[in-house]
């Protein structure tokens, strides 16, 4: 079934843009590396249309020995969150909130579903997304679901899917998951958000109004 779906969608992939290959240097990643004092966890972000209820994007925030975002085929970026093949490092509280605020606007809201992990599980998932490589456009939910399904402790509970909403529903049924929706009235061009994100600040600073 998976092969059939890939074959059916292949013409769309060929017609669209391919993956963006961005690879930050070791020095950049080390400079902005951030370790949170929160317990290990994984958060599934799902961007959902306020008009139609359809899903537009899927991403993972993984908190373990450091905190990163796996943003397959995503468009968010920040100079203080260096990127390697769709994995963003240096995810301080400010960067986490920037990421949410970038996606939440009049036409979209962000659903955050957080599940506690052990440190070993966080390490395993982090290693999996770091070796994933750049993701082609429209393949965000597929890449996230595949990464989660590769975890032996999640394999039978997460479906293979191209649908961010189907992935969100399945993830929400996992034990211990908590959920929060983030709404914002920002205009769709994100001009105000992008202006704020370019303001200088000290790395690790957590002051930011949601």
TrEMBL record:
<keyword id="KW-0732">Signal</keyword>
<feature type="signal peptide">
    <location>
        <begin position="1"/>
        <end position="19"/>
    </location>
</feature>
<protein>
    <recommendedName>
        <fullName>Lipoprotein</fullName>
    </recommendedName>
</protein>
């Amino acid at each position: 079934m998976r092969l059939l779906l890939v074959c059916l969608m292949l013409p769309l992939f060929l017609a669209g843009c391919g993956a963006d290959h961005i690879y930050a240097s070791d020095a950049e990643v080390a400079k902005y590396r951030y370790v949170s004092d929160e317990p290990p966890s994984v958060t599934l972000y799902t961007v959902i249309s306020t008009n139609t209820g359809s899903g537009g994007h899927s991403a993972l925030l993984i908190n373990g020995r450091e905190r990163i975002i796996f943003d397959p085929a995503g468009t968010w970026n920040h100079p203080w969150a260096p990127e390697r093949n769709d994995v963003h490092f240096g995810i301080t509280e400010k960067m986490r909130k920037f990421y949410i605020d970038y996606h939440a606007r009049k036409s979209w809201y962000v659903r955050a579903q957080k599940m506690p992990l052990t440190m070993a599980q966080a390490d395993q998932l982090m290693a999996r997304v770091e070796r994933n490589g750049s993701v082609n456009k429209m393949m965000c939910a597929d890449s996230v679901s595949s990464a989660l399904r590769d975890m032996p402790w999640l394999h039978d509970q997460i479906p293979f899917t191209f649908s961010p909403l189907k992935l969100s529903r399945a993830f929400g049924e996992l034990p211990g998951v908590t959920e929060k929706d983030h709404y914002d009235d920002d205009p769709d061009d994100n001009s105000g958000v992008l202006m704020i994100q370019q303001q200088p600040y000290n790395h690790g600073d957590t002051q930011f109004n949601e």
